[in-house]
């Protein structure tokens, strides 16, 4: 039993690693029906470029909203299989920061997320959402590879 965890947050971006993280979190949740599973997707707003103003820029955002809605519907269907309480969220902003804030605001006990697999100098120079969350989250972070 996972008696130490009552609320698990899964950071989801529809990548293969985030799908694995979701499966892991679902398996952990199944151990106790009292565990609440929250899935958060973070979209990063594009910086407008000269050619992106007006209609093209709005069309891009509308397409992004439609994609998020479709992914969210897919997630909700998969989560229906769990006896646990589940919720999905879509937020916009810097992924690392938004995940940490979401975890804090929802008083999560555990974060489950995928890793990009970067290491060494690549991670130092490029940064990594999972690395940021591990460093800044107030609760344990389970990284799935």
Q: Your description of this structure?
A:
With 145 residues, the protein is of the alpha/beta class. It has one domain (7-144): 3-Layer(aba) Sandwich (Rossmann fold). It contains five helices and five strands; from the N terminus they run βαβαβαβααβ. A five-stranded parallel sheet has the order 3-2-1-4-5, sandwiched between helices. Helix 3 packs parallel to helix 5 (129-136). Mean pLDDT is 86; it is low at 117-127.
Instruction: Tell me the helix content.
Output: 40-55%
Shape: globular
SS elements, strand count: 5
Helix/sheet category: alpha/beta
Distance between the termini: 23 Å
> Unreliable stretches, pLDDT < 50, 5 or more residues?
117-127
Considering the protein shown, what is the CATH homologous superfamily? HUPs
Largest sheet: 5 strands, parallel
Order of helices and strands: EHEHEHEHHE
> What is the alpha-carbon Rg in Å?
16 Å
Average predicted local confidence, pLDDT: 86
CATH class: Alpha Beta
CATH architecture verdict: 3-Layer(aba) Sandwich
Oligomeric state: single chain
Number of helices: 5
> Strand share of the residues?
15-25%
- In the CATH hierarchy, the third-tier topology is known as Rossmann fold
Coiled coil: 58-85
Keywords: Coiled coil
Protein name: Universal stress protein
Pfam families: Usp
């Amino acid at each position: 039993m996972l008696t130490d965890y009552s609320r698990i947050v899964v950071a989801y971006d529809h990548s293969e690693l985030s799908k694995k993280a979701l499966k892991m979190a679902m398996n952990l949740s199944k151990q106790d029906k009292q565990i609440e599973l929250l899935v958060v997707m973070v979209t990063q707003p594009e910086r407008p470029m000269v050619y992106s103003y007006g209609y093209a820029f709005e069309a891009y955002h509308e397409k992004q909203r439609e994609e998020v809605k479709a992914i969210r519907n897919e997630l909700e269907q998969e989560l229906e299989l769990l006896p646990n309480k589940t919720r999905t969220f879509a937020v916009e902003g810097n992924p690392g920061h938004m995940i940490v804030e979401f975890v804090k605001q929802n008083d999560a006990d555990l974060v489950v997320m995928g890793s990009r697999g970067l290491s060494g100098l690549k991670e130092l120079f490029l940064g990594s959402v999972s690395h940021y969350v591990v460093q800044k989250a107030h609760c344990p972070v389970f990284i799935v590879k």
